[in-house]
Amino acid sequence: MAKDKKEMIPLIIASVVAVILIVVLVLLGGRPNKQERENIYSSLNECLAKRGGGDAERRDCIIKMDNLLGRSMKYALVRGETVGERLKNAKTLFNRDDYNGIWEAHKLRNRIVHEDVAMASGEFDRAVKYFQLAIRRLLK
C-alpha cells in the first residue's frame, strides 16, 4: 500500500504542474478583453460616420479601417506581425470572394499610403464594405 502511494506522488505533481500551465496559458494567451472589442467597434463607427466627407477624410478612413482590420485579426488570434501576414493566415475564415475583396481593400490602403493615389468613389465604397464585413466577422 505504501508503495502505491509513492508511485502516485510523481503523477500528482505532474497533474498539478499541468493545471498550473494551463491556467497561465489561458490567462496570458487568451483573447484581448471585451473593452478592446468595443474600442474597435467604436472606432469603426466613427470612421463610417465620416465617410461622406472629402477625399482626405475618405483616405484617412481607409487607413484607419485597415488598422482596425489588423486589430480585429489580432483579437481573433490570427497569427502574423503585419496586416498582410495576418490576412494570409486568415484565408480560411472567409469565402473566396470576400477574402479577395478584403485583400483588394488592404491593397488600396497600401497604394494610398505608399503611392499617394487618388481613389474613385466606387473603389472607396467597395473597400469600406469589405473592411466592415471582415471586422464584424472577426469580432463575433
How many domains in all? 2
Helix content: over 70%
Q: Give me the CATH fold name of the largest domain.
A: Four Helix Bundle (Hemerythrin (Met), subunit A)
Average pLDDT figure: 87
Order of helices and strands: HHHHHH
CATH architecture of the largest domain: Up-down Bundle
Radius of gyration equals 22 Å
Oligomer: single chain
Please explain how this structure is put together.
- With 140 residues, the protein is mainly alpha-helical.
- The chain has two domains: 1-30; 34-139, Up-down Bundle (Four Helix Bundle (Hemerythrin (Met), subunit A)).
- Helix content is 79%, strand content 0%.
- The chain has helices at residues 2-29, 34-49, 55-75, 83-89, 96-115, 121-139.
- It starts with a helix and ends with a helix.
What's this model, at a glance?
The protein has about 140 residues and is mainly α. It has helices spanning about 1-30, 35-50, 55-75, 85-90, 95-115, 120-140.
